[in-house]
Design goal:
2 copies of one chain form a homodimer. Chain A is of the alpha+beta class. Chain A has 2 domains: 1-73, Orthogonal Bundle (Arc Repressor Mutant, subunit A); 74-108. The first copy, chain A, is 69% helix and 13% strand. Chain A is built from 5 helices and 3 strands; from the N terminus they run ααβααββα. In chain A, strands 1-3-2 form a 3-stranded antiparallel sheet. The A-B interface holds A 2, 6, 9-10, 12-13, 15, 18, 21, 25, 72, 74-75, 77-78, 80-81, 84-85, 87-89, 91-92, 95 and B 2, 6, 9-10, 12-13, 15, 18, 21, 25, 72, 74-75, 77-78, 80-81, 84-85, 87-89, 91-92, 95. The first copy, chain A, binds a DNA duplex through α4.
Chain lengths: 108, 108
Amino acid sequence: MSRNEDRVFNALADGSRRKLLDKLCAKNGQTLGELCAHMKMTRQAVSKHLALLEGARLVVTHWQGREKLHYLNPVPIHEIQARWIAKYELSRLQALDELKTELERKKR
Amino acid sequence: MSRNEDRVFNALADGSRRKLLDKLCAKNGQTLGELCAHMKMTRQAVSKHLALLEGARLVVTHWQGREKLHYLNPVPIHEIQARWIAKYELSRLQALDELKTELERKKR
DNA sequence: CCATTATGCAACCTTATGGTTGCATGTCAA
DNA sequence: TTGACATGCAACCATAAGGTTGCATAATGG
């Protein structure tokens, strides 16, 4: 179960991969070739990154002739957000609240 | 600027470090010794992980005598959520919307 | 003061990771 | 059919990452 969360966090850990997600966010359904533009590495390296993103289901693909089209899948990120980040958001709000109470107390 | 985002994503990439954050979420202000409980590695390894978390400002510390107390800092996670995840949340809702429209279209 | 406890620092090892090069495969278009 | 194009596969390399062991330092409590 948590194996997939692992893969997602891992995939997001690399800047180049986040950049690729950004590219897909800007324009969905790009080919490997397109995605290689402005990436300072070989096509093979980009391909490996995309494979990792696909493994984490952050990217889904489908073949069209000899081209492989890449699409963003926002679901895993949403899951991370829902079952992981929300928890810390809570403690953040609590911390803010504590701070506010503290300030109130000092005011008197 | 993005250097810090990098550090945060990197820190979150490791399961042991996420576990440490969870522990702090459950009980804030723990010592290194306490945090070592149930971690299947040496104290030094845990210490390194905490140093990384501290480097990403996900954890802040303060010394009390010979003990180092560790506290969760939810701010970096919130920043990631705000300026990174929110964007993908948008495309997720769009995707859902497109799907809905598609279904509506087919119904007629 | 001294033994104990809590932590840090540094060297070292193994494996994972990100990258490269070279070649193979499959599809398109002339 | 053939050459060019889009991609995949595999071997290889350098460095980073996660872990260990051993020793140093500093506070605590009897």
